Amino acid sequence: MRHIVLITLISLPLFSTFFPQTIHTSISTVSDKSVSLKQSFPINGMSGVVIHDYGNELKAITGRVVQYASRDIKLIESDIIHHDELPTINTAIKAGDKVIGGYLYNSILLLAPDAQTYAKITSMHKKRWVHPDLFALFLSKEGDARPSKENLASFAKSYQIGLIYIVGNGTAKLLDPISGEYVGQKTISGLPAKGNAPFFMRFDEIDAGWFSEEVTENYYKLMDAI
pTM of the entire structure? Predict the structure, then answer.
């Protein structure tokens, strides 16, 4: 049986559009572990990267920032771009450094209850959709019991993903995995009563971690717990 997914935006000023727009700005001042930007991000909870220009057309990402409020932008102490073959960048964040808010927001992991919902959503938006098969394999290798903000953040850093699109019980939310905050929300109807727990994927079975056990938890309960 095919399901038709109907989507309606919630009338919240914070989420005037579901997908936040990427913004280019720069750092005005730096103090301890916070910065001020020449232009704030459009939505609180958005993360971004700091880019330093070394001259001679050489640039590098030197830090991450998260906007918790329009005047509360924190520097994040974490791996910037993890790569075993690249050295760790220790350049200090400086005024004048460029900032991209919503970095990689066009690259999205969608967690959906079934194949019909997944196909409907991905066909509606021209994004770089990362299939949850990759996340399923990632969890099986990590041995994690279920999706969480922590393993989603780790997966996002490894696979260069900017947003997690989570279809829950009557709602669709966008999680910024770096900040751990939701940056988009809308209502969604026409969903199946029971989804494929833990999320839609094409594998019949994965013999590792939680996926080797019989799944008894409700899909929507799992998604709403993230």
Answer: 0.83
Asked if the bond preceding 198 is cis, omega within 30° of 0, the reply is yes
Q: Give CA torsion, residues 140, 146, 152, 153, to 10 deg.
A: -100
Mean pLDDT confidence for 60-76: 90
Q: Per DSSP, which regions of 33-170 are E strands?
A: 34-37, 47-55, 58-69, 72-76, 98-101, 107-111, 128-130, 163-167
**Residue scoring higher pLDDT (213 or 75):** 75
**d(Cα 89, Cα 211) in Å, to the nearest integer?**
37
Considering the domain 6-17+105-224 in this protein, what is its CATH number?
3.40.50
* Backbone torsions φ then ψ of 157, nearest 5 degrees: -65, -40
The single residue listed with the structure tokens 């019980």 is: 169
